Amino acid sequence: MAEDVLAAIRALAPTLRERAAEAEELRRVPDTSVKELEDTGFFQLLQPKAFGGRAADPVVFYTAVKEIAKACGSTGWVASVVGVHPWHVALFDPRAQQEVWGQDPKTRIASSYAPTGKATPVDGGFKLSGRWHFSSGCDHTQWALLGCLVPDADGNPVDMRTFLIPRTEYRIDDVWDTVGLRGTGSNDVVVEDVFVPEHRALSFGPVTALQVPGHELNDEPLYRLPYAGVFTTTISTPIVGIAEGAYEAYLDATRQRFRVSYGQKVAEDPFAQVRIARAGSDIDASWLQLSRNIAEMYDLARRGEEIPMALRTRTRRDQVLATERSVAALDLLMENAGGNAMRTGPHPVQRAWRDAHTGRGHAANDPERALVMFGQSALGMDIHDSMA
Question: Where are the alpha helices (DSSP H) in 115-209?
């Protein structure tokens, strides 16, 4: 059962927490951690049953992500991103799914969706070249999902597709060296004039319309959720988990801290208590809204009902605000964590603060774009954004 996976993740969390500093030093998640996550069944949660997956309730997946990120932000980020890719591959032509999982159902997939490469239509498919940035966890995967614009005969972009490429046809350049999420190994993927057959190039149009070739094989309700809601929640959830883990670490430290300047225990400071209340409330609100929206969408999908635009845009609204609230909560805690929190070293609140601010920079966390969509929907206007 999917709940057994969640229990195994919670049991593994203390070990992942102990390895957080190692992940930062390596600038990638330790191989041992990835293997242990694999052994829990985590990476199969969103994988279709046709290939040995669980096609589980997505709230279970996001809950597991949050628990991992509480322990180690970088590991949680990689787990979330790599863990959601089976959901996307399940939307592809069944031939592509067979190529990925036919021989090894535990095959993992990385991604870089920003359309920074070049796709040229050729007979039977496309020629693909370019460099894609920020491919989190790519060292632990055997395939990659790469976004690219497709031009017409005059060179004008007319389509946006995701191309599925095996590890044998691209290289990884080690360029990831950051102040936050250091352990994610979000390196560059480089492709040089590789042929990609048509069945491994999925257009965003059918994905947005929830009419994809993968439905021929995978009829579970999980695969009838909107891409935008699934993927952006995948980015916000680890940030909420990072904030929750820092909140718990802050409480543990504050119970023991003594502020010499005021001659009192920090725990007795009413202003510190107010910060705890505000931070705790914002983190709780973030998770409650994220999980509520995913649960409502999944319930509609299980009943075979259409997911209305009002719910789609609310999901995007709450997703960007979940990130915003979590980062703000961490700022409150970090400001009151004391001078020692700023020392170089494995301070859990400082690491969380760096990780969350780095994750905030992801394109999925652009608040204005998402909030405009919600406002337009609330006013009865038509929404034409593929990320709704």
Answer: 204-208
In the numeric block, which tokens belong to residue 324? 């915003």
CA gyration radius, the chain: 21
Cα distance between residue 353 and residue 179, in whole Å = 10
Q: Is 377 exposed, middle or buried (0-12, 13-18, 19+ CB in 10 A)?
A: buried
Domain region containing 296: 225-378
Cβ-Cβ contacts under 8 Å for 216 (sequence gap 6 or more): 94
The DSSP code sequence of 252-307 is HHHTT-EETTTTEEGGG-HHHHHHHHHHHHHHHHHHHHHHHHHHHHHHHHHTT---
Residues 164-201: tens digit of each pLDDT: 999 999 999 999 999 999 999 999 999 999 999 999 99
**Domain contains 21:** yes
- In whole angstroms, give the CA distance from residue 191 to residue 165: 9
Neighbouring CB atoms inside 10 A of 102's CB total: 11
How do 143-151 and 109-112 pair as beta strands?
A: parallel
Q: Could you report the per-residue pLDDT of 30-54, keeping only the tens digit for each?
A: 999 999 999 999 999 999 999 999 9
Q: What is the CATH number of the domain that holds 13?
A: 1.10.540.10
pTM, two decimal places:
0.97
- As a dihedral over the C-alpha atoms of residue 352, residue 356, residue 359, residue 360, rounded to 10 degrees, the angle is -170
Positive/negative CA dihedral, 277, 283, 288, 289: positive
Side by side, which strands form the sheet with 157-166? 109-112, 143-151, 157-166, 201-203
What's the structural domain count of the chain?
A: 3
What Å distances lie between residue 59 and 162, 247, 289, CA to CA? 25, 22, 12
Instruction: Measure the CA angle with vertex 308, ends 305 and 313; round to 5°.
Output: 145
